[in-house]
Amino acid sequence: MAPQKLSTLTDYQTLVDKYDTFLFDCDGVIWRGSTAIVNVQATLSMLRNRGKRLIFVTNNSGTSRKDYVTKFAKLGIQASVEEIFSSAYATAVYLSEVARFPSNKKAYVIGGSGIRNELHDVGITTIGEDDTGPVNLATLAEVEPNPDVAAVVFGIDYDITYRKLANAHLNLTLNPGCLFIATNDDRTLPGGKHVYPGTGAMLSTLIHSTQRSPLVMGKPNTPMLDCVMQKYQLDPARSCMVGDRLDTDILFGIKGGLSTLCVLTGVADEAAILDPVAPQATYYISSLGDLCELAAN
Amino acid sequence: MAPQKLSTLTDYQTLVDKYDTFLFDCDGVIWRGSTAIVNVQATLSMLRNRGKRLIFVTNNSGTSRKDYVTKFAKLGIQASVEEIFSSAYATAVYLSEVARFPSNKKAYVIGGSGIRNELHDVGITTIGEDDTGPVNLATLAEVEPNPDVAAVVFGIDYDITYRKLANAHLNLTLNPGCLFIATNDDRTLPGGKHVYPGTGAMLSTLIHSTQRSPLVMGKPNTPMLDCVMQKYQLDPARSCMVGDRLDTDILFGIKGGLSTLCVLTGVADEAAILDPVAPQATYYISSLGDLCELAAN
Question: What is the top-level taxon of the source organism (chains A, B) (predicted)?
Answer without folding.
Answer: Eukaryota
